[in-house]
Amino acid sequence: MQFDEILARHNIKVTLLRLELLKILSQSDKPLSYDEILEQVRANKTSIYRAFEIFEKNNIIIKNEVGRKAFYELGSAAKAYFVCDVCHAMINIDLPLPNIAKSIKSAVIKGICKECE
């Protein structure tokens, strides 16, 4: 994936931090919290959140909030997740999302997973 081209297409200035953040998100098979991202990149909090704000505004990433904690992932397609209220596991749901809106970015279903019942 050519992240510099994606940024240029959205008229976003290409910086090393922005490229690194997109690379980190692209290599993950699940949404990442700010803390998980901070373990992989050296930058200040404001710069990371500012980059994510720009990415989200341009539909490059999707932000989900679970228990007042934000999780980020690339916004390539609509996503659905089950989040356990007990252990906070975030599990991908592989099913077609209903055609109820022109554009669906993400859906979160909460409950208690089988392991925590």
Topology:
Blueprint: H1 3-9, H2 16-26, E1 32-33, H3 34-38, H4 45-57, E2 61-66, E3 69-74, E4 79-84, E5 90-92, E6 106-111
Parallel strand pairs: 4-6
Antiparallel strand pairs: 1-3, 2-3, 4-5
Summarize the structure.
It holds the Pfam family FUR. The protein is of the alpha+beta class and 117 residues long.
Keywords:
117 residues, alpha+beta, Arc Repressor Mutant, subunit A, three-stranded antiparallel beta sheet, three-stranded mixed beta sheet, 4 helices, 6 strands, 31% helix, 25% strand, globular, WH-like_DNA-bd_sf, Fur family transcriptional regulator, WH_DNA-bd_sf, FUR
Question: Describe it for me?
Answer:
- The structure is a single chain.
- This protein has 117 residues and is an alpha+beta fold.
- The protein has one domain: Winged helix-like DNA-binding domain superfamily/Winged helix DNA-binding domain (Arc Repressor Mutant, subunit A).
- 31% of the residues lie in helices and 25% in strands.
- The chain contains 4 helices and 6 strands; from the N terminus they run H-H-E-H-H-E-E-E-E-E.
- The protein has helices at 3-9, 16-26, 34-38, 45-57, and strands at 32-33, 61-66, 69-74, 79-84, 90-92, 106-111.
- The strands form 2 sheets. It has a 3-stranded antiparallel β-sheet.
- A hairpin with a 5-residue loop joins strand 4 (79-84) and strand 5.
- The longest helix is centred in the middle third of the chain and has 13 residues, at 45-57.
- Pfam families: FUR.
- This is Fur family transcriptional regulator.
- InterPro entries: FUR, WH-like_DNA-bd_sf, WH_DNA-bd_sf.
